[in-house]
Amino acid sequence: QVQLVESGGGLVQPGGSLTLSCAASGFVFSKYNMNWSRQAPGKEREMVATISRTGTSTNYADSVKGRFTISRDNAKDTVYLQMNNLEPDDTAVYYCNAVVLNAGNWVPYWGQGTQVTVSS
Question: Do residues 81 and 12 lie in contact, with contact meaning Cβ atoms separated by under 8 Å?
Fold first, then answer.
């Protein structure tokens, strides 16, 4: 059973930092790209960052480039999102996700999300 469990969200002041973690289980973590997405109130979910299986390739949404860093530890089956210089517009529920080959089908899996609130 695929599970993704995010943690690390919270309330932070503008300009502050947070690190999110996503612990994965139920699949061979090192074989799949991993993603972080977010959804703000009243807005569609948007991709924030992706990382390749080995961690050698990453991509970011323009809105977070230079401020957020995605990384992974395949020994711990965990993906991280380091967020620096946070802005009020970063307030959202953050989700990790993976598209996993399951019984011959590519199936998207999502965690339950972790709330990040940037406010003074």
Answer: no
The residue assigned the tokens 């019984």 is: 103
| Segments of the chain assigned E as strands | 3-7, 10-12, 18-25, 34-39, 46-51, 58-60, 68-73, 78-83, 92-102, 105-110, 114-118
Report phi then psi at 30, rounded to 5. -70, -10
Q: Count CA within 13 A, CB hemisphere, residue 47.
A: 11
For residues 9 and 18, give the distance between their C-alpha atoms in angstroms, rounded to a whole number. 7
Q: What share of the chain in percent tops pLDDT 70?
A: 100
What would the pLDDT profile of 15-54 be if each residue is shown by its tens digit? 999 999 999 999 999 999 999 999 999 999 999 999 999 9
